[in-house]
Amino acid sequence: MNAAAGTAAAAGAPRLDLGILVIDLKTRERMRLNGHAEVTPEGTLIVHAREVYFNCPQYIQKRVIDQSVGSDETGTVGVTRGHALTSEQHVWISTADTFFVASAVPGGGADASHRGGNPGFVRVRDASSLEWPDYSGNTMFNTLGNITVNPNAGLLFLNFEQGNTLQLTGQAAVVWEPERAARFPGAQRIVGFHIEQAIQAAHAVPLHFRFLQYSRFNPSGTKDKKAPS
Predict the structure, then answer these.
(1) pTM of the full structure
(2) DSSP readout, 26-71?
(3) Which domains does the chain possess?
């Protein structure tokens, strides 16, 4: 049985809102699929698409799968949980150039999206809160619209070189104060996030990625920088 399907079946949920993001870091292509999933009595997860569309390549850092590093066995995952950031996680987030956001509106569907910028574009305010700039994008406002109605959200940070993941769940809010946005080059507004739970997993992703280049759309700093040869 698929793990997600097994969890859903055990919870007695025959239909689940679902948001999927498919991204190719090498070509900077990304596609979003929103819809719902049904769990059959046999435990099969069937996805029904309601919306499928491509997004622009903005703010996606170019990476490729590192073929020189062998794949990890996901069965060796080590998981730690907490309700606040550790010093290691603080550094992880503060130096990240990419993360992913999950949001939803009850009865209105779920969504998964990508956020990117130069290292330091996500700022840790304290052990239980952080914030990031909202740059000019596709003007669909799926994420911002969802969290305005329903602040419950999830964030995923990925260590691309080692396959480690950091999942954060909590409450998000759009900050419309111009003086706050002015602290972030290129920001149109700010999103604040209060952490309720943090889950760190070692070697959760079996693939390893090698950094090539920052997106030329990233505001200021190391824009369009290439990795050293």
Answers:
(1) 0.87
(2) TTTEEEEEEEEEEE-TT--EEEEEEEEEEE--TTPPEEEE-TTSPP
(3) 58-213 (2.30.110.10)
